[in-house]
Specification:
Blueprint: E1 2-9, H1 16-19, H2 29-42, E2 54-61, E3 70-78, E4 81-88, E5 91-100
Antiparallel strand pairs: 1-3, 2-5, 3-4, 4-5
Length: 104
């Protein structure tokens, strides 16, 4: 089982904040998932996992991510997929799992 921890900043000026939501900006869930996937792809031990078909098995968004936050992403590989947790400012923001097809 491989466990990796990655920190990624959320830029204050990210264009998604302009429309999501005016006056109460938060990072959209799809962009949070993209940050998790990019973090996994950037890690040499995990980079090859997304070369085969993947499926987002589960995702829960538990607290908002605001402009200027730092994402602390935990990635854990097990036989069935890649589990993730995202924390920011000590709060669990999101968790879930990607699964992939077995090699043929």
């Amino acid at each position: 089982m491989t466990v990796v921890r990655v920190s990624r900043p959320v830029p204050v000026g990210h264009p998604a904040f302009a429309g999501h939501f005016p006056g109460q900006p938060l990072l959209p869930g799809v962009l949070l998932l993209a940050e998790v996937m990019e973090a996994a792809r950037a890690e040499p031990a995990l980079a090859g996992l997304f070369e085969r078909p993947t499926q987002l098995q589960a995702a829960k968004f538990l607290s908002p991510v605001r402009p200027g936050a730092t994402l602390d992403i935990g990635l854990q590989v097990d036989p069935g997929g890649l589990r993730f947790e995202v924390h920011s400012a000590g709060m669990l923001c999101a968790k879930g799992q990607w699964t992939w097809s077995p090699s043929t």
